[in-house]
Fold:
Amino acid sequence: MLDLEDYIRIIPDFPKPGVVFKDITPLLADKEASGQCLQELLNLVNGQKIDKVVGIESRGFFFGMLLAQNLNAGFVPVRKPGKLPYTTLLEPYQLEYGMDALEIHEDAISKGEKVLIHDDVLATGGTAKAVCNLVEKLGGEIVQCNFIMELSFLDGRDKLKRYDAFSVLQY
Ligand code: AMP
Structure:
């Protein structure tokens, strides 16, 4: 077993002063480490039935699609406003300073479908919670939110209290 933390590069003050960025590109570049990470994410799902994996732009797309293929599920991208070409549902959410928003295609999830939400990092939880809202507005049932990393000191899981939320690495 590899220590996956060895494949997360820490970049202080990126993209702005005060943010300690967790760079997953060394993990993506290593076939053993990325394979182990995928397996650990699959272990978190623990055999539960999943119809759709929702990946959050953009770093949630890498393992999101791999998870979907391995879980025999479809993949759904959630993107920043203006990127998805078809009719969308938009969910605004609070950032530390100001607001942002995410979109999903209105036909991406059918009522009652079992959904896994995936992203690289759980920080304050605002992003993942906005995606939960989008999925539920379309009638999806959230089975789990999973992440490569969780920044525990930011208490992101407080916003996800109603859901099962798990991560491979905790900081
Ligand atoms: P939050 O809404 O605060 O939970 O932020 C989560 C989103 O921001 C995810 O899509 C992450 O990719 C990104 N993010 C937040 N903090 C970091 C960080 N320290 N390093 C890398 N990505 C981050």
Notes: The mean pLDDT is 98. The CA atoms of residues 80 and 94 lie 14 Å apart. The radius of gyration is 15 Å.
